[in-house]
């Protein structure tokens, strides 16, 4: 029992010496206390009863020397194990510090990529809104142009119908005038060729005047209702007026033709503009589809980066847990070494008192 207690005490003392530095043992004190030529009654020398080579301790010294060698070897081995454990702990602490540094670096990189992705997504959203607004404006312009085109087509159709109807009416008036110019002259020639019964010239003249007064040329049936009296009384003046009206109508028709040509040019330009706008709209739709695809891709990368960030946070939490566990083990070892140090001090005080 006493031997086991001595072994435990020596083991703890050797651990304390190896961990906290070499402290002088009682034997070293005894070796340093006496030097050749010193006085025997030195204050540091122990009493004769405590000296190991006294007859009182002769038997104990022989047993303790062999036990001391064994315990010293065991203690040296244990001290080497403690050294290896301390070195391993130092390596693990360095490894954990390197891991935390790497994690911080990765976290800063991921955070920068996340901020960059957010900025790109914001820019893409702004561009998408602007493209949608431009597309709506172009659609409105296209609708306005289409309505304008329809209105112009309706106006040109109405004008062409009016011009065609006016030309047909002018042709009918010209036919009527030509017929009226020729018909009264024929009737008058027939009347002058009728033979008279009277002998004298006065009677012939009277008869001719009477016949001229009684004569009223009948137009054809289709002109009986709508024919004006001026055409019958004054054919020459009506020819001049109809010529003037035909000239004015021809001028009006030529002006309408010019307007029609201009409208056709405008319609051609509007068609070209419409085709150009349709191409632009198609181009904008393609760009919109491309931006949407890029936006979805950035969204996917953002989700992947968030998943990676969560995984790294979990790893960091696990690493911090291991680090806290190691720190707790370190604190427990430090407390144990403090206790051992206090025990060694108490044992040294007891030995000095003895």
UniProtKB/TrEMBL annotation:
<feature type="compositionally biased region" description="Basic and acidic residues">
    <location>
        <begin position="199"/>
        <end position="214"/>
    </location>
</feature>
<feature type="coiled-coil region">
    <location>
        <begin position="260"/>
        <end position="353"/>
    </location>
</feature>
<keyword id="KW-0175">Coiled coil</keyword>
<feature type="region of interest" description="Disordered">
    <location>
        <begin position="199"/>
        <end position="219"/>
    </location>
</feature>
<protein>
    <submittedName>
        <fullName>C102B protein</fullName>
    </submittedName>
</protein>
């Amino acid at each position: 029992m006493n031997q086991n207690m001595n072994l435990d005490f020596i083991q703890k003392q050797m651990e304390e010496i190896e961990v906290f530095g070499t402290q002088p043992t009682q034997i070293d004190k005894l070796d340093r206390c006496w030097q050749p030529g010193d006085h025997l009654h030195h204050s540091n020398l122990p009493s004769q009863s405590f000296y190991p080579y006294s007859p009182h301790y002769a038997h104990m010294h022989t047993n303790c020397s062999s036990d001391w060698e064994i315990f010293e070897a065991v203690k040296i081995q244990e001290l080497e194990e403690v050294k290896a454990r301390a070195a391993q702990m130092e390596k693990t602490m360095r490894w954990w510090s390197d891991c935390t540094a790497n994690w911080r670096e990765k976290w800063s990189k991921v955070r920068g990529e996340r901020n960059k992705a957010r900025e790109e997504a914001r820019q893409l959203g702004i561009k998408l809104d602007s493209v949608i607004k431009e597309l709506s404006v172009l659609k409105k312009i296209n609708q306005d142009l289409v309505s304008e085109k329809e209105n112009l087509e309706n106006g040109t159709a109405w004008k062409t119908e009016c011009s065609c109807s006016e030309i047909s009416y002018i042709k009918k008036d010209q036919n009527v005038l030509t017929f009226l110019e020729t018909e009264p002259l024929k009737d008058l020639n027939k009347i002058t060729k009728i033979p008279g019964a009277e002998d004298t010239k006065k009677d012939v003249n009277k008869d001719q005047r009477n016949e001229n007064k009684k004569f009223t040329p009948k137009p054809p049936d289709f002109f009986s209702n709508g024919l004006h009296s001026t055409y019958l009384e004054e054919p020459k003046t009506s020819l001049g007026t109809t010529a003037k009206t035909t000239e004015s109508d021809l001028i009006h028709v030529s002006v309408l033709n010019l307007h029609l040509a201009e409208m056709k040019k405008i319609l051609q330009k509007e068609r070209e503009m419409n085709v150009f706008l349709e191409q632009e709209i198609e181009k904008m739709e393609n760009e919109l589809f491309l931006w949407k695809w890029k936006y979805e891709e950035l969204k996917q990368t953002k989700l992947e980066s968030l998943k990676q960030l969560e995984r790294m946070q979990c790893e960091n939490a696990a690493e911090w847990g291991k680090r806290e566990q190691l720190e707790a083990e370190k604190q427990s070892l430090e407390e144990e070494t403090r206790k051992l140090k206090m025990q060694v001090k108490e044992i040294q005080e007891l030995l000095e008192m003895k």
